[in-house]
Design a protein that fits this description.
The protein has about 230 residues and is α+β, with helices and mostly antiparallel strands. The protein is about 35% helix and about 20% strand. The chain contains eight helices and seven strands, in the order ααββαααββααββαβ. The longest helix has 14 residues. The C terminus is likely disordered.
C-alpha cells in the first residue's frame, strides 16, 4: 500500500493571515489537532498544531516571567519565539515552518518512519509543494486494522522462521525492547526500540543467522527522549 491509499484528502487548511482564534475554532469544530497553512497559490508553507496554542495570555497559560538569570541563559531568539507563541494573533507568526512532507507514492513504512523520527502526529502529502492530503498516526492504525482483517494465513515456513528468530533473541538484554517480529515470505520485519546502533546491528545479525531468512526489514526506532550517539 502507498500513502495515497490511506491519506485523508478532505483537509481543513488556513492562511497565514488567519487569526489564531479562528484557527482554534476550526480545530474544535472539526475535531482535529493540526492545520496545514497554505499561501494564496495553494502551496504549503507551514503547519499549526495544538502545541502552538498551549501557552496563550488569553487563557492565562503563558509561561511565567523568568528570573534575570533565566533571561540571561536563553537566547534572544528563543525568548522572542516564546513571546510570539503567547501573544501573536496571526497563524503565520506562530506556525511551524520547514514542514516535513511525504509523496503520495511513499510506502506506509516510510510514512511511519517519518512520523516516528520527527515525533509528529501527522505529515502532509504533497507534490511540488501542493497539498494533496494528510497522513496521520490514526490513518496508519486504521490501515493496520484493515490489513489484519484481510491478511492471509502465515505459512508454516514463515512461522518456523519467526520462532527461530525469537529463540535467537531470547536471553539477550539488548533485545528486551523488541515489540514484535513479523515474517512474510521469508523476510523478517523487526519492530521495537533500541538505544544504540550497536543494539540495532546485533538484533539484525541475530535474525540473519536463522536458516531460511531471505531478507531483513528494519523498523526499529529510538525512544522519543533519546538521541543516538
Amino acid at each position: 500500500m502507498q500513502v495515497s491509499d490511506i491519506m485523508t484528502t478532505e483537509v481543513v487548511t488556513v492562511l497565514p493571515t488567519t487569526t489564531v482564534f479562528d484557527a482554534a475554532a476550526l480545530m474544535v469544530k472539526h475535531h482535529i489537532s493540526g492545520l496545514p497553512v497554505l499561501d494564496e497559490d495553494g502551496n504549503i508553507i507551514g503547519l499549526l498544531s495544538e502545541s502552538d496554542l498551549l501557552h496563550r495570555v488569553e487563557t492565562g497559560t503563558g509561561k511565567p516571567q523568568r528570573s534575570w538569570f533565566g533571561e540571561f541563559v536563553h537566547s534572544n531568539r528563543k525568548l522572542a519565539a516564546q513571546y510570539l507563541k503567547e501573544h501573536a494573533s496571526k497563524v503565520g507568526d506562530i506556525m511551524t515552518e520547514n514542514v516535513v512532507c511525504v509523496l503520495p507514492t511513499a510506502s506506509l513504512a516510510e510514512a511511519a518512519d517519518v512520523l516516528e523520527r520527527h515525533h509528529i502526529k501527522r505529515v502532509p502529502v504533497t507534490i511540488d509543494g501542493k497539498l494533496l492530503g494528510i497522513v496521520s498516526r490514526s490513518n496508519l492504525v486504521s490501515a493496520l486494522a484493515r490489513a489484519v482483517q484481510t491478511a492471509p494465513e502465515v505459512s508454516a515456513a514463515d512461522e518456523a522462521i519467526r520462532n527461530s528468530v525469537l529463540h535467537e533473541l531470547d536471553g539477550h538484554r539488548w533485545a528486551m525492547s523488541m515489540e514484535n517480529v513479523v515474517v512474510k515470505d521469508g523476510v523478517v520485519h523487526l519492530w521495537g526500540l533500541v538505544n544504540s546502533e550497536e543494539e540495532r546491528k546485533a538484533i539484525r545479525v541475530c535474525a540473519e543467522r536463522v536458516a531460511g531468512v531471505k531478507g531483513i526489514e528494519d523498523h526499529l526506532g529510538y525512544p522519543t527522549y533519546f538521541t543516538p550517539m
